[in-house]
């Protein structure tokens, strides 16, 4: 058990389970983008650890870029997504792979969708390590999902609770009272 601020969390996914999910995703990406030079577009802060791991496993040429968005306060999505750091390169005509740590309500994804539509990308796919199907309210297709998880608040592997927990190499879930 671990404590972050006022909440307790219990072990949920091991590093081995996470790595196996990432290996599978990498296999698919290496197959689907063979011979292309995709742009991996990570969503900060949460996706930094997953982005690093998945990009290390990509065998071809690629570029890496990041945007920063935020909507979460504590353990809840506010629904109001803010762009904190925008795109600093043109994605026109490029194949883009959006890298998310987790897709929850889909609000963040919808916001990025709007940004990318204006960019005139050749195509773009959504890659997320974790997906909460019960919380998802949008219709944007999630092309690559590492793991589907129940609608519980998790931390670790890049995900935080009010800034803490991002460094944990395993995933913990909020302890039920
Ligand atoms: P959405 O906009 O509701 O889909 O939420 C997406 C963002 O909220 C993610 O990129 C995370 O940064 C954050 N988030 C969603 N669920 C969790 C969670 O269970 N733990 C920590 N952060 C989360
Ligand atoms: Mg995030």
Automatic annotation (TrEMBL):
Residues 16-161 form the Phosphoribosyltransferase domain. Pfam families: Pribosyltran. Its EC number is 2.4.2.8. Pathway: Purine metabolism; IMP biosynthesis via salvage pathway; IMP from hypoxanthine: step 1/1. It catalyses: GMP + diphosphate = guanine + 5-phospho-alpha-D-ribose 1-diphosphate; IMP + diphosphate = hypoxanthine + 5-phospho-alpha-D-ribose 1-diphosphate. Belongs to the purine/pyrimidine phosphoribosyltransferase family. This is Hypoxanthine phosphoribosyltransferase. It comes from Salegentibacter chungangensis. The gene is hpt.
